[in-house]
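Supplementary Text 2. Reproducibility record for the structural model of the 182-residue chain.

All settings were left at their defaults, and a single model was retained for analysis rather than an ensemble. We include the record here because the model underlies the residue-level annotations in Supplementary Table 4.
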Amino acid sequence: FVASAERLDEARPLVEAACDAPLRARLLVATGRTRWRQDRVSEALALFAESAAQPLDSETRLIMLLLWACTLCCVGKLDEAEATFTEAEHLAEAMEDRLHRCVLHVNRFFLWAERDDSERGAEDLRRAVRLARELGQPALEWGATVNLAELLHAGGRDGEALPLAIRSFELQQRYLPRPGPD
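Retained model, structure tokens:
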């Protein structure tokens, strides 16, 4: 994330000098992403709201919507978050973008957690696991699997949770650059 923020700082004067509206819009989304990663939530929210009105290509818009929806969950704007996730889902389906659909299912879990809807959360996480496996994306599979294992464990469904916890641990050990919690 640090290197990404550094690239953003390097790109900013070049983009501003280019006077290219679509490129400036992408810079706005990238800045929002960096603020989100820096846990500067209110700044990220404002940047995503501003970028929503900009001329974005479909992929950049989809990325922005996924980030914006998560940010809205963080500040308790759950109806707006759900609508934003729905728009992102329609866009991902129209683009036949399975990778970002997988990300959507991982991220939308946070909406369902805030709404205390474990069934919908589990459904989204299972979809994410399937898509991540199909796509050969172990980091996404790990994120979905560890969250699903925790969700099932919290619901007292340890028999279902344990194999997922073991799978997430194996993925973590094999594919992730830095180990996470055991």
